[in-house]
Amino acid sequence: MGKFSKSLFLVALICSAGTALAQAPPAPTPYTLPPGWIEPGEPRPPYVSPETPQGSGPHPAIMVAETIAPGADFVAYYPVNLSQLGGKKLPILVWGNGSCAYVGNRFRHFLQDIASHDYFVLAGGEMVMDKGEAETIDMSVNPVLTNPDEPAPAAAPARAAPVTAQQNFDQSNDPNRKRVTYELLSKGVDWAIAENKRPGSKFFGKLDTSNIAAMGNSCGGGLASKFAGDRRIKTIGILSSASAALASPTNADVRRKLTQPLLLLSGDPRYDPAFWGAIKDYEVLDKAKVFYGWRMNMVHMGTYRQTNGGELAPLAEAWLDWQLKGDKSAAKWFTGPKCGLCTNTHYHVRRRNLS
To answer: Which domain does 296 fall in, by range?
Structure first.
């Protein structure tokens, strides 16, 4: 190639590069969370031992590790003195953790408060004894939002390696890390039913096995949705489940099977990536019994790690009291033109097929 030809080639190459640079789209501006969110782990409850009764209910509850089969671990929450219940039986709640984390005390404060209102609660996973670090949370765990507006369908971004201590619980990208599964939770339901029938069990005749709920947060909400149509389960709760589990085209069978009343909650779209998934879930469930609500200023991790589970605990307790105990007063949180959450200025609600 002659000198003149080489010069023309270099000029063309430079022009081409300049055109490409000029046409490249600008890098997106990272979305910064606006101030005003509810701190998910504040005020942080002081750590107490598992056998220390806790909760705002009439019968403070403890938490106990239960291995129901090799490799099948749970943390159970129930009133410390079962003899005080008299003839009263405890309805059952089986719980799936956010991130499907195999840490049964990850939602301790929320679940222990529910148990203190006369429930037997089973959360999938082992009890992690670390002076309460597994039982709290901070904003480093809140999933990163790129845009609070409704996103275009896209593949989920790859999860970065954990940086903070709290992220190690909820954001591990280790494919070999053990997770809570639907199969594990289903075994937990069967175990509770069997323990209620087994002479010698501390739960013998103490559990109300005709009134069982399945609930979960985030990934755990997706697990709870798989109990749709399960005759053992009377109601389902999906709380900030970013997977849009029920709206997914692959879950048409789950939608078809859903016969139980459903509690569907999310946080603020500025802070909770599950917001749009929850709306889509509600919209596709045109024949189901659904209460849907989103809470202004609430982040993806909710208030579960605040003292006694924060404001989400009495809300969940009211739903369970209505669905599992037939409490008409609790039903007023969700039904009627002036329902409790309908008139709460912090919540935006929609309802379908609820009496």
So the answer is: 61-139+159-352
